[in-house]
Write a structure and sequence with these properties.
The structure is a homotrimer of 396-residue chains.
Chain A (H helix, E strand, L loop, with lengths): L22 H4 L6 H6 L3 E6 L8 E5 L2 E7 L5 E5 L13 E2 L4 E2 L6 E2 L5 E3 L17 E2 L1 E4 L2 E5 L13 H4 L6 E5 L15 H5 L8 H8 L13 E6 L3 E9 L5 E9 L3 E3 L9 E2 L2 E9 L2 E10 L22 H6 L3 H6 L17 H18 L21 E5 L2
Antiparallel strand pairs in A: 1-11, 2-3, 3-4, 4-9, 5-6, 6-7, 7-8, 10-11, 12-19, 13-14, 14-15, 15-16, 15-20, 16-18, 17-20, 18-19
């Protein structure tokens, strides 16, 4: 080295390679590998009440859609642009039989059939040739689920034991505020940054413990022993924390395909099977939101578990306070719009994250080989899916 | 099909092809087919008063320009960046003989000649080699017209009978508020979405009738019989509405090349030849505005015809009210920044739209063949152009 | 020419070629020619106080960085994204030994060594393999300087006589408000537009004289005789103004590589060697800011020389006032995000600008040939650099 002498700096930022992302795992658009995988499952796209007499504009997996409920009570989900001249049906009028475009009055039913073309002779003699692109929807657990995939691979809408079997005094509640996201309802980063965080069990005592004060119960602040495993539906993390009295706080969390958060409430010191399920909905490649359904004992209980940092809700914090009390929102949005995976250094405590990616890649391979991904079931009468997730107290 | 059984959904949004636009008809930049066609005509770029002692920044057909009026009363239109070092002349100072750049003081006259270079010896011995790019302008009907095309094909600035022959008590008025656009002065979508709407006669009873209440006269709410035809200057639509007393409301509207709205007032129950002309000015590929000149009986009459929806002007409506009372702005901006023509399904009532596109394509072909497009005339003494447009009452 | 007759317009804007920029001189990213040249020098990236217990997000030459000061008082500059999972260290916590990421608690010292991995067994047995990319920093003259280039070519941090040799009663002061930029602290255009302006001596009587009133001393409003020359460190401009009493106001300004403003105060009628040095820091290709250090007689004196236009500071002016009283900000931002050099017409009074570009190109050639650029010195004990810059009164 013909340098000018002196000790040479090592490890500086100079000359580092251009970073890249694992787009095959992150991107959600139609025709992309992950976009096609996600399209093999049902996803919640709104609360039941979001399908109403006023059209609602949605963005789902990079597609612009309009949700409504016709006069007969049927929810409808159609692509945003009218099949006639492309005006958005957001400005349409919901009627007894469907939604009518404001521009020339074409009327479509919830499965896209064109019922009227009022500017055409006889209301449109060839209107039956026209179809507004639509997607099947179904209502369950207070949510509107949609299927955006190939019709011939449409699975049955799954049932979950956690939401089907209620204890005395419990009722179901649905929420659209992105519980668990740590911030506003729409979170401006790629969905995978949140989803793989579900199996990133060991960040809890750091981010939610020593950094931003005890956001969760005191037990959660202890460093756990964690093991991870692939399950029939995704990945599970088992965390054991030895308590001062010699008992063991045994906690199981699951990341279920395609995007389910099966996470026991970290803020309540109860020992029970998981009480809620969250669905991470990618709006597009760089934003997502979370829909949640759960068993509650009083209305509003689901939303009441939203994080408070320094005693305040996220939207009440100033920027200096966000910097001082970061949560999941800051940690994950702080990875950038789409994480730069080429710059990561995964270690042994990241095995859960690595397993999530491995299971996702296995499903991409399954699709490429013409098989169905895990968790897809075509039997509408299949029994509800049971999860292992929960907080439990073990004797030793 | 090896599907899982059950009835198969048809017509869903899955797997639809990537949409596309007819960019040869929509894009307006220099060197594009439509950009070159539009550059063969004069376009209004401001009100007479917009050319003044304070430089005004304009965007026209995708070009950044500066409009001013020198101390001698001559309007000048130059490209925005100073020929010397590129500083925008928006910060220039208008003087007796032209506009002076703020940076080094170069002075340009209205045809771009460099008159002074005060930082150079002797005020610039070679300044006559410098030319600030400029465009010819002309004032008529209260508007500043500009020609951005090839000098050797510069047509005469047309005269129009509708604006030359005034009835007793009438005077001319000009307006820059985008009358007919249904929204603010600058409308954020491609100009063609508005221009072809001129021949989309049958949307009137829907969008402006059943949807947003009777915005126009009661007659306009009736479904008309419409015929369309190509004229010497563009396309015309003839709408006949049979009135309860047996007479016929006979209405002719015209879309004149390049971008003229020759539309009889739909809000006044008068029977007369068309009283105003609008020019749709593409600012760039995704925004436009409309300049209008017309015969009025009192000042402010032109602007007084602006649409009210639910009793309010567009800018007074809330977003829920815009959704409930859509107008031309919502219908056309709702087609997207540039409409996705590949997803359209034109029907018989869209013949007017199809004719507009056909006439435009014919002119593109004429240009490609080295011919001048229709409506271009090089004779400054040619008689005013007369339109058929108007509202008339026929006996049967 | 088969035109329609009439006189043909010449010099119009029609058909002008697509403009281009000299990106080899303007772009600052790693791996670009100018980006690599700039990376051969130290640049100030903050005031001494900006390195503190709260992490500070910086953008320098297109790179996202985080600046902090550890509990031991050492300033640290690291790339923004944590080497572990990419969360920005802006949300990190500064501790005695370094900065700790909020997500999983990895702790890095000021040279990027990973000291702790609290989620790993034994705090991370292989943590020494990890290095957070960092850059060397040094404090001098109240500023934090950083070196982002190849370690083996790291020069000594230069000393300057103007800041080392203080007259009685003088002290040093540093400023981050972009003195000389004529606007806000962050200026939204390419850095070169400002830097080459330093040698654009003749704009002063125009922009800062006849346009926006006498911003500087009365002498500066006189048109000077200017000569330019390449120096050992960059380019200098010598301006002589003959005063009414027959004496000569002799002024020397220098543009020193890489980005130094060595400009005598134009607002004070004192005759003395230059009292301050400014550094133009490119944040990225389309924005920059200026750090300044100088000798003062009272605190706050540096900032007190900020321009006032029509009696107001830049941020106090309305848009019409900015248009009427343009300054350096308007002239340079008015050249666009990156100037379009292909449209320029340089003349004899632009020789200073041309020399700046020539010297920069010479350094690009030097780098390409494997040599060091001018002004780079590897001897930490080299004497301070002395500049010729100053305002002086000559007898004739």
């Amino acid at each position: 080295m013909s340098g000018p002498g002196g000790s040479l700096d090592t490890g500086t930022g100079y000359g580092r390679p251009r970073p890249s992302s694992m787009h095959e795992l992150t991107d959600v658009g139609a025709g992309t590998p992950m976009g096609e995988l996600l399209r093999r499952y049902w996803h919640p796209v709104g609360l039941g009440g979001d399908a109403a007499a006023t059209p609602r504009a949605l963005r789902v997996l990079g597609e612009d859609l309009v949700l409504f409920r016709d006069g007969g009570g049927r929810p409808g989900l159609v692509t945003a642009r009218c099949a006639h001249r492309g005006t958005t049906l957001y400005y349409g009028r919901v009627e007894e039989r469907g939604i009518r475009c404001c521009y020339h009055g074409w009327l479509f039913d919830v499965t896209g059939h064109c019922l009227e073309q009022p500017c055409e002779p006889d209301g449109g003699r060839q209107r039956e040739r026209i179809r507004q692109p639509w997607y099947p929807v179904a209502e369950r657990y207070g949510l509107i689920f949609a299927y955006l995939g190939p019709p011939e691979r449409k699975p049955a809408l799954p049932r979950y034991d956690a939401l089907e079997r209620l204890d005395p005094g419990e009722s179901l509640e649905a929420d659209a505020s992105s519980i668990g996201g740590g911030g506003p309802a729409v979170i401006p980063c790629n969905w995978l940054q949140h989803y793989e965080n579900l199996m990133d069990t060991l960040h809890v005592p750091i981010l939610h413990g020593s950094f931003s004060g005890p956001q969760f119960t005191a037990q959660m602040g202890l460093m756990p022993e964690v093991t991870w495993a692939i399950t029939a539906h995704g990945v599970k993390a088992t965390s054991d924390r030895r308590l001062p009295d010699g008992t063991v706080h045994h906690r199981v969390s699951e990341a279920v395909l395609p995007t389910l958060r099966v996470i026991p409430n970290p803020r309540v010191a109860q020992y029970a099977r998981v009480e809620s399920i969250g669905w991470v909905l990618p709006l597009d490649d760089t934003s997502f939101r979370i829909y949640t359904a759960g068993r509650v004992r009083r209305p509003g209980e689901l939303a009441s578990v939203r994080s408070r940092l320094s005693g305040k809700l996220w939207e009440e914090l100033t920027e200096p306070e966000h910097q001082r009390f970061p949560g999941d929102y800051e940690a994950q949005v702080g990875q950038g719009p789409v994480a730069l995976h080429s710059e990561e250094h995964l270690v042994s405590s990241d095995r859960g994250v690595a397993l999530v990616r491995r299971v996702l890649r296995q499903q991409l391979d399954a699709l490429a080989a013409g098989r169905d991904p895990i968790g897809v079931c075509f039997d509408a009468d299949a029994p509800p899916i049971t999860f292992e997730a929960g907080n439990f107290l073990h004797a030793s």
